[in-house]
Amino acid sequence: MANRRFQPLGADYTDLSGRYSMSRGPSDTLMDRIAEFRNRQRATTKAVTLAILMIIMDMSGLSGVYAGDQEELDERQEKRGTLSNLNMPGFQSGLASTNQTFDIGESGQHACMVLDDQSLWCWGYNGHYGLGQLNSTDSENPIPVYRDSGWAEQTVAVSLGFYHNCELLTFGTVQCWGQSYPAGAQGPLSSDTASQLQNSPSPVTLDSAAVLVDSGRSHSCAILDNGSVQCWGSNQYGQLGVGYQCVTGNEGVCGVHNNEIQSILYPAYAILPAGRTAVGLNLFHYSTCIILDDGSYVCAGVNFGSASTPFYLNDSEMHIDFADSYTAVDGGDLLYVTSNYDELERTQMRYGGARTPHFYQQNTSYIYAVEGGVRALAGATANFDQSFEQGCILLLNNSLGCGRNHYGPHVRRCVVGVVEVVGHGQLKGSVA
Q1: pLDDT for 415 beyond 80
Q2: pTM flag (> 0.90)
Q3: How far, in Å, CA of 388 to CA of 402, rounded?
């Protein structure tokens, strides 16, 4: 979850924006303080990350997987020590410098996780073949994704869309499965194979090794090792960022395969500003946003006026560290997409002290904003009226703020849990 700007050695915080002033050089005392801080950070991040995981699962309707009697819960509580063996570089999606090891599908009905042995396990609804099991049978318990005989586990990251999922393998291969042409086409010609359904992971034909993959509702993008971005799938609203929409099938390379006139199935290059490379992705619904190497942020797709060429949302004073849905973070400050969906604004400080998480409450005259110091996002959305309605935010002081869901005035149930790997990756948890 450490997808935030790192403090340089010898730098002192000047404010919550994450900008620093430099001293002449780090003293021994400063170095000791940095080492102590990092040790504390490692110890606390795992526990807080797991709390976020369980809260999100509850909000997404997945927490039923963990129901059990009190005796079983007590037994699980005694095994907290096994947490140190989990592979948790962070659940925060979107940056090429980190691996997303857990994700929940856009529908909220299935989830996948990468274990420390690089195996991939999924559970939940399987109607779109999202569990990668060669069948469409649901599973309440995590089960390993199907692999051919002799397969060596090598998954380092996972990304779930709505109809499909994708994984990133150790040496830069991207594999996808599910429905709506998850792996795209094997070549650029109409005679090249493109499968509407992949019931187990299938390689995507990219021009070079990938360092990051992300998935939207029915499209995916990957950042390649040279910083370029290739995308494939539905392009009805310009979400692939290639400079045109697929409407009639006569535009560009739309409709080449299987007469899918609203899609580009062979990976195409998204248009990036001249001289810039990509370091992060934020795909959601029918939209694509890209974080560039200078901290700028460009977006395309239905949520951005159906723009087919990614355009800048940030001003020159903003440096985007990571993003999720309509929300982005700059040095700890929470940003939101304005009502015109054409720029980012900073949330206003309204209630409480520094770094205090606040919650949106329905049917009241109060509109709460989440204040500065944001460390990670999970399903977060800050709307243009600055109300924080969904998901959870982890702050720099390790406090956790969550917004309401669509079915009540706020998060009606708070879940604190322990997740452990027993044997070969069985996920278990305690719920309170």
Answers
A1: no
A2: no
A3: 8
